[in-house]
Structure formats: C-alpha cells, structure tokens
Amino acid sequence: MRSSGDLPDAPVAAIDAISVAPMRPLPDVALDLIPRPGAPVPREAALTLLRRQLGRIQSRVQEAFEAHALSGLTAARMLGELTDGLIFAIHAYTLAQVGQAQRGAAQREIGGDEAEASPFGAPEPPFVLAATGGYGRGVLGPYSDIDLLFLSDAPLGPRGRRAVEFMLYLLWDLGLKVGHATRTIHECLEDARADATIQTALLDSRFLAGDAAVFDRFELAFAEARQDWGVGQFLSAKRAERTARHHRYGDSPYLVEPHIKEGRGGLRDVQTMYWLARYAFGVKRMPELVGPGSPGGGLLTAREARAFKRAWDFLWTVRFHLHYVTGRAEERLTFDLQPVVGARMGYTRHGKQDGVERFMKHLFLTVRDVVRLSRLLEPAIERATLGLPAVNRAPDPGLASEGVAVADGKLLIMPDHDASADPAVMLRLLRAARDRAIELHPLAYRALIRNAPAAQRLRGDPAASTLFLDLLTGRDSARWVRVLNEVGFLSRYIPDWARIVGLMQFDTYHVFTVEEHTIEAVAVLNQLEAGLLDEAAPVASELVGQVHSRRALYVSVLLHDIAKGRGGDHSEIGAGLALEICPKLGLSPEETETVSWLVLNHLLVSQTAFKRDIDDPKTILDIAEVVQSPERLRLLLVLTVADMRAVGPKVWNGWKATLLRELYWRVAEVLAGGLSVPERDVRVARAKQAAAAMLQEQPKEAVEHFLGLGYPGYWLSFDPESHARHAGMIREAEAEGMPLAIATRVLEARAVTEVTVYCSDHPGLFSHIAGALAVGGATIVDARIHTMTNGMALDTFWVQDAQGGALDAPHRLARLSVLIEQALSGRLNLVREIGKVRREPARLRAVQVPGRVVIDNFASNTHTVIELNGRDRPGLLHDVTAAISAQGVQIASAHITTYGVRAVDVFYVKDVFGLKIENERKLATLRAALLAALTLPGGEEAAGG
Fold first, then answer.
1. Which of 37, 557, 608, 837 has the fewest CB atoms within 10 Å distance of its CB?
2. Would the keyword Plastid be found if you checked this record's keyword annotation (predicted)?
3. What would the DSSP string read from start to end of 147-187?
C-alpha cells in the first residue's frame, strides 16, 4: 500500500509486538471461589477475590504494554484472554451459588429427609454464555464494554433467570461495563432478521461457557439464516451505518482531532471490512482472503492483508494509550493528548519535524490506508457474492478506445486493459466520468489504488499533463483531485505532494491536514466560479471570472502550501518548488513565473488586511509596489479567499470579507493610476467637505465646531456617514453635559457590532474599555482611537461574539454599555471579573504559543507599528494595552486577529509628543513590558523580535 518513502520511521513497538518473556501465570481464582464442590465462598468474599484478580489482570496488561512488550492488538487479545478466565470463574461461581440457593429453598419447602431425597427442581433448558461485540472477537480495550449473550434453546426457567441476574450483578459490582442480552436461538434469528446491528453482534459471538451443543446449534442456524437473508441487505445496512457515522464524527479522515474508533479510517471501518468478509465467506482473518484458492478467488494480495494487520495494530496501540492516559474509554485524540500519546509511542523530533507532528502524520497515513483498503475490498466482496452483471464495453466508441468500460451503469477501466502499462488511462477514466456525469464504479477505485504506483511514469509526459490540468481546472475539480489523492495517484505524480500528505500543523487554527486543506481550497475556487459564494465573497466571485491566467490560478492553489513541514518560510521554499513542478505539469514559462509569484505572496493580502492600517497611505502604496499589475492583484485576492475559507468553518466572516474588499479596491485604484492616495491635506479637506454636506441641515456654527474637533487622522479613518453619526453623538453629549456617551450599532453585512465611546481622554482608556468588553463576552476585531482637539476621546471598537458573529441581542448591547461605564468610573474590578470569564478548554492548552513582539518603524510614515503574537485569553487586550499606556505611549489604532488560540494584535502608536518612537532604550523597555503582559500564568516563554 505504501512506498518506503510514504511512512515516517516509527518505533518498532508501535507496530509489531516484541516477544514477551514468559510471565508467571495468574492464580486460578475459580479455585478460591469454590474451594470444594458444593461449597462456594460467601458473595462478599467472592467480590474481594474477584476484584483482586481483576486488578491483577489490568495491571499485568498495562505493565507489559507500557514497557513496549506488547503492541496494541496483542495487548487487546491478551486482555480478552485474561478476561475470559475471569468470566469462566464468575460463571462457575454463579452456577454453584444459584444451585445451592435453589437446593436450600427446596429443602425448606419439602422439609427434612424427604426433601433430601426429592429430585432438585424441574428440568430446565440448558443455556450457554457467549461473548459478542469486541469481546466476541477476542479483543478488549482497557475500558471497553464486555458484551455477553445468554443463549438457550427455549426460554430460561427460574434457575436460569436467577443465574443471569446473579452473574450480571456480580459483574456490575466489580465496576465492569456490561452489555447483555438473554435470547433463545429462535429469538436471536427473529431479532436479527430485520436488524443489521444484531446480525453484526451475532457475527462476533464466541462460546465461553455452558452447554457447547446449544452454541453449535445456534451457529448452524445462524449460518443458514445468513444464506437466506443474503449479503446484499447486510452490505446496504453497513454502508448506511458507516455513512451516518462518518457524518457524525467527520466525513474527512484528515481532521486534526480525529476520533480513533468511529471516525473515517478508524477502527470501526476496519471492523466493517472484517464483518463483511465474515458474513459473506465465514472467514475470521484477512489473510484467509489471499490466494486464488481463497473465498472469492483471492480478493486481497498478501501485501494488502499485511496492510490491514498493520493498520489494525497501530490503531489499537493508539487506543490503548488513549485509555491509559485518560483513565477512561476516550476515543478522540485531542490536541492535549496528541503530544502525550506520541511521546509514549516513542516519536521524537526528527529534523525539522516535531515528535507530535511525526506521530500524527503516521496516524493520518494509517487512516488513509484504511480508506484505500476499504475501497479495495468492499466492491470485491460485493461482486464475488452478489454476482453483479458482467463488465460491458462502453457504448461510446471513444470511451472504449480509451480503455474505459461500463458496469452497472458506472465507469471503470476495462478488465483486459493493463493500467500499469498505460497509467494515463486512470486520468482518462476520471475525465470521462466528469464529462459524461457518470459515477465511478467501486471496482474503478480498486483499479486506481492498485495501479497508482505507475503514475510516477507519467511525470513530464505532455499528454498526461494535458489530462491532469484538464481535471484540475475543469468542472468540480476538487472532487477529482480528492480521488487522485485518496487512491495515491497524486503522491506518485507530484513527489513533493507526498510530503504534505497527512501533515498537520499543531495548532487550533487549521481544521485539516495540509493536503486536505489544499483540496478544500480548490473546492472553494470551484464554488467561486459556480457563483455559489456571491453573498459571502462578492468581490472574489466577480473577479474570478475576469482572471486571464486561470490555469496558473488553479495550480497556485494546488501548490500554495506544498513546502509546509520543511522548516523556514514555506512561501519562499514553495515558490522555488513551483519553478520546478510547473514545467513538468505543462505550464508555459509565463504561467510558471506567475504561479511561483503567487505562492511566494499568497499571504500578502491577508496579512496586510488584518495586521495593517489600510487607511494609512503607505500600506496601500507598499502592497501596490509588490503587486504591480491588476491581473496579479485579482489572482492574489481570489487565492486569498480560497485559502482562508478552506482553513475551517469559523475562520471566514463578514468583517474579514470587508477588510479584504476595501484593501482590494484601494490598491486597484492605485494600480489604475487613480488618486486614491493624494496628499494628506487634500484628502482631509475632501473628508471635511463630505462631512459638511451630510450635516447641511444643522446650524452652521455647530458644523464648524465639529469640523474643528478632529485631527487629520480622524478625518481619514471614517466615511462621511460615520462622521455625521459622530457629530450627532458629540452634539447631544455636549448639550446634556454628559461626561460619557456610548453608542452601539449592529453591522450585519460585516458581521460585527460597532461600539463608539465618547469621553474625557486619559491614559489607560483603551485598556479599561477593552477589559469591559472582554467581561461582556465581546471579542475586539478592530479599533480606532482618536483624541479630539477639545481633549475628549472618540474611540470606536468593532466587536464580535465567540462564534465570530455580531452581538445583536439588545440585552447584551445594554450590558456592554453598563460594563464600559462601570469600568471607566472605577466601579468594576476588571482583573477580578476577567478572571471569571470562561477559560479555553483543557484540550487546547497543549498547543504552545510563545509570546513575540515585533516593533516596526518602516511600515508607516507616521506611526510606530507594534505586532504582538501570543496565546489568546480573556482580557489579553486589557493587559497589553495597559502595558502600552504605562509606558507613556499613545495608541492610534488597533487591528486584532485570532488564529485558533494564537492572537495577533497590531497597534499603531506614537509617543506623548505625537511622533514615532525611535529611541532604542525606550523601545527595549516597551518590548520587555509587552512580553511580560503576553506571558501566561505558569510561564510560556516569550521572544522579542
């Protein structure tokens, strides 16, 4: 399934069991429970003995596993075998106890010697104790349920029911989680007839104790019933069950916090293949499907059977570690558990890659193998058991000539066409499916997976390049790129792609692995072209139809993160890789240069929009100088939108869309030779004229008064409508003699709420307002701070709720106003109240975010720009802005961005004289104060820059 280069080196104990030294056998607890026939020990004494034995079993397995003497699968089998011994003892003890109780009751009813001579009760049907579920397969996790079936030919009598009840209560008192059912053979078959879940449980059934003849009769009857029911109904039910499960736990196998048991590519998917093979052929191990003499005629190769075993073992190893680390049946591998489990499995830093990233890459390659193996085996079982119609030549002569055939109305490679000799047929097959809107047959996936290694012979082949680019740039291209990735074609065709497969970034910002994020970005590009994002991203939706370098755009999306995981700047390294890859894909020199430039600069627009003041003329001129052409600006904006929306569902919002849109139009106007950045005085005069026009119904004296309040920076920061609102707010505050005025406004189109505060200016004002907003559950995404000529401050904050939307509930807006008033009047203890705000989930605390401070005196002609990187937390802005104010520094604007748990806050500041801060000693003191404010309690390391 893999080439040697696909899989990172892994600790041997994580994959294969090491031979275990002979262990001293555990004592036979049954001898202690029933020291002599007919004389079982009292129940409480039995519980003590059983608890001690259960503790021995659990510690024996845990010690061996954590010493790397057992792999996960071997440990699961060992735990299952040792649990068998415990269950045998409990079963024997139960029969002895119940038999004694029944005999005593009979003596009391009949009395004396006559009772002794009387026969013991009426005959009851014999019953058997069987294991089902995972326990039936002989494998148990440390905290797995124990599933039991009490089986009989006829309904149980009083003694049988008493035995079942006694045994279950004993198991529950031991603290075991027990799933159980009591059925006759007839009831089993009737219940299973219409319920695939029961069929599945019975498939795994295994005899434990009791009358073996009963179990033999059940197995025979169940095998005959399966023949009558047929494989088709079971296959359909398991497919539906799997689809629902994937939808619940994540349709992608590449989620960065995967569910090891139920997620796509997890243990349950491996079990599903086992169930299908068991149901159809009665096999108990995948190697039984290898070879021409095996059921189905050899559905698996020996290599594929080994891949099943390797995946099964690795996933069980991860699961055992998860259970032992958490002390419960935890199946989700969350961020806080990933470094712990990875370290326990022996993954350490190797080159540029952290141990946790190496571990997760191995995990994602494993689940990818499970997905592939499922696509290989399932259609083969279906075809071998259901005898579906034979493969037919395609009715279209063009398809037939390309090696494509039809079966069941779906496309696949012709059986007599050697795909390994003609690997381009794999691309032709996908193109035919797209052009004719026909589904791929499951057997097509089987052929694609098995022939994917031959794709390496297509590198640099002009015809193959044409086919590949046609698929990449055609209709619904993300679907076909995903197919090529899942079957392994893409890693063979573009070797550098293999390095990002299964690669995750250990942060909470990205939802997918790198290659899955890339395919999602291609899907966003498809949506933009199809007009599906007209409302969410109107500018990008319009521009995507205007780009001339369409092939370059698609290839740049495919390659924009191709260099991640190599250390250094992935944009720079990726630009170099693009120069090598693009010619092999058939791109012209001009297209190649465009792709390389886009990869190099694919973060330029987002970083500028979210971290810089786009009202600053230098910001616009700087980006225009880099972009230089309207075509590149269009390409860059579309690439940015595709990249951002593909990160995760919570990353994109109306506010970010607004910033990108405004940045685009301002840069586009400069590139078009417009006057969007004229001299500052001219722009200020124009802004005042526009504001006066909005206020023409007001008295001339009031208008003149307002126009004299703002410094140039204020007039350049808002549109005329905002100036008019501010004028009304100030006029009302002055008329009423109000020391504080607060206005809120919901901007639905931007997904933000605007909070404007007008009050007397004083040091720490921003910090107090930021703290109050944090207490009110508001997240600041942008801010403008202005001191007016009358000594008053007019500060505007744009805030969102925790879900990235506007705060629009009237009671929440009212509470924000009250909190701001209380904070500014000193009646609100901000430090205490911020401490009460809900902290981040524990699972996220493992993600390290070192504090970093970058001070830049070149990004703006008029301000010093401070960029802070650190772990986000309630009240972070309060802390850092308090530190800025304490240094006697004035904040002009703030730009707040959050990437998962990482906060990136940018402040445009000046000193008390309204100048840039250029004194090195002052800058060093400021940097130290900000690093201290960034450092979380408990001490994350911080670094200056």
1. 37
2. no
3. EEEEEESS---HHHHHHHHHHHHHHHHTT--EEEEEEEHHH
Token duo for residue 156: 């149980």
Beta bridge partners of 866: 855, 907
| Residue spans per domain, the chain | 12-229, 494-671, 738-944
Output the 3-class SS for 320-354. Answer: HHHHHHHCCCCCECCCCCHHHHHHHCCCCCECCEC
Is the torsion defined by CA of 655, 658, 662, 663 positive or negative? positive
pLDDT tens per residue across span 540-584: 999 999 998 999 999 999 999 999 988 889 999 999 999 999 999
Which is it for strands 779-787 and 792-800: parallel, antiparallel or unpaired? antiparallel
- The distance of Cα 179 from the centroid of its chain, to the nearest Å, equals 31
State the alpha helices, DSSP H only, in 231-354: 231-249, 267-281, 302-326, 338-344
Cα-Cα-Cα-Cα torsion 874, 875, 876, 881, nearest 10 degrees, comes to 170
Contact (Cβ atoms closer than 8 angstroms) between residue 178 and residue 148: yes
Q: Which CATH code fits 12-229?
A: 3.30.460.10
Q: List, as own/partner pairs, every contact residues 714-717 make where C-beta atoms lie below 8 angstroms and the sequence separation is at least 24, other chains included.
A: 714/786, 714/788, 714/794, 715/683, 715/684, 715/687, 715/688, 715/691, 716/615, 716/680, 716/683, 716/684, 716/687, 717/615, 717/784, 717/786, 717/893
Quickly count helices (H) and strands (E) in the chain.
Answer: 39, 16
Relative orientation angle of helices 700-707 and 720-736, to the nearest 10 degrees: 110
- Cα 290 to the center of its chain, rounded Å: 35
* pTM as predicted: 0.78
Choose among 199, 219, 196: nearest CA to 207: 219
CA distance 420 to 413: 11
What is the rounded distance in angstroms from the CA atom of residue 166 to the CA atom of residue 147? 16
